[in-house]
Amino acid sequence: MRGVLLFILLVLAPIASHAAAIHDAAKTGDVAAIAAALDAGADVDESDGQATPLYLAVRGGHFAAAKLLIERGADVNAAPTPGLGPALMPALAKRRIDLINLLLERGANPNSQRNRENALHIAARSGCLDCVKALVEAGADVNAKTKDGKTPLHLAKFKGQREVADYLIAHGVILPTPAPIAKKLVAADVEKGRASFSRLCAYCHNAVPDEGANQGPTLWNVVGRDKASVAKRRYSDALLAWQGVWTYEDLNKFLLEPMLTTPGVYMEVPGAPDETERTNIIAYLRTLSDKPIPLP
Ligand code: HEC
């Protein structure tokens, strides 16, 4: 028992105090204290249970402290807690372009993740154009998806960040276009389409003339209807900007993957990426009318 206590006092306590000292110093940006802690043997990447000294220095906005830690060998990509991610994340949250550039220049991964999203998703959503530029120039994937299928462009448009959206479009965003389905509609299975609709769409959309209080507009008469035209409904700018009536091919494109084909859309669902299923759904949508418009 006494041996254990002695062990704690002599061996563990100094380690714990080093850890505490370097974390306190990082939080306050005390460069001399960080250097002293490191000289006394503190581990530059030691976690305080959640974050590394570099993460804490960046979160505090302390440039000189962050630089010193990196020069003393801190791992810029260390992320002991997935929910916090690496030091790049607080730099983005604070929109500190000097810290963002420091980290990227010293090898921070521009595709770093926090939870279910990449650094670029965070920057695009917040509308920080300089942050987005720095990440893209360092090689961030402009088409990366969050775990629930959102791209940086979708998030930028959804939040009305126009400059960021334009920049992303000019820097490699790919908007998918499906193959035409006109010829396949004739052979589509309306009953299977109805079943898919029940499973994928009905919890947000009515299939009757009644609009109801659903999240999405009624899809009665949707084929051939002006886009985004149901009275008193607040549509996204993305859908309002798409001119014309809903043709079979426009529905085919929209439903492929709504957030990819129509970034900024309020319908944040995977849609129906499978061509056969999508064609069946569209054939079913055609029947939601007193006078279904002719097949192409
Ligand atoms: C989570 C709810 C939700 C689900 C599920 C959903 N939608 Fe939507 N849908 C919406 C919302 C909200 C809008 C309005 C979008 C906007 O304004 O950007 C919309 C819009 C539409 C439109 C355009 C309507 C118009 O008036 O122009 C069509 C077509 C559509 N959805 C079809 C579907 C189909 C088919 C499915 C199933 C594969 C589906 N939706 C699943 C919520 C949903």
From TrEMBL:
Q: Where is the Cytochrome c domain?
A: 188-289
Q: Name one Pfam family in it.
A: Ank_4
Q: Which InterPro entries match?
A: Ankyrin_rpt, Ankyrin_rpt-contain_sf, Cyt_c-like_dom, Cyt_c-like_dom_sf, Cyt_c_1A/1B
List the PROSITE patterns: ANK_REP_REGION, ANK_REPEAT, CYTC
A molecular-function term among this protein's GO annotations: electron transfer activity
Q: List UniProt keywords, sorted A-Z.
A: ANK repeat, Electron transport, Heme, Iron, Metal-binding, Repeat, Signal, Transport
**Is Zinc-finger one of the keywords?**
no
- ANK repeats span 17-49, 49-81, 115-147, 148-173
For this UniProt entry, which residues form the secretion signal? Answer: 1-19
Q: Which SMART domains match?
A: ANK (SM00248)
Keyword Glycoprotein on entry: no
Tell me the PANTHER family matching this sequence. ANKYRIN REPEAT AND PROTEIN KINASE DOMAIN-CONTAINING PROTEIN (PTHR24198), INVERSIN-A (PTHR24198:SF194)
- What this protein is called in its record is Cytochrome c
Lineage of source species:
Bacteria, Pseudomonadati, Pseudomonadota, Alphaproteobacteria, Hyphomicrobiales
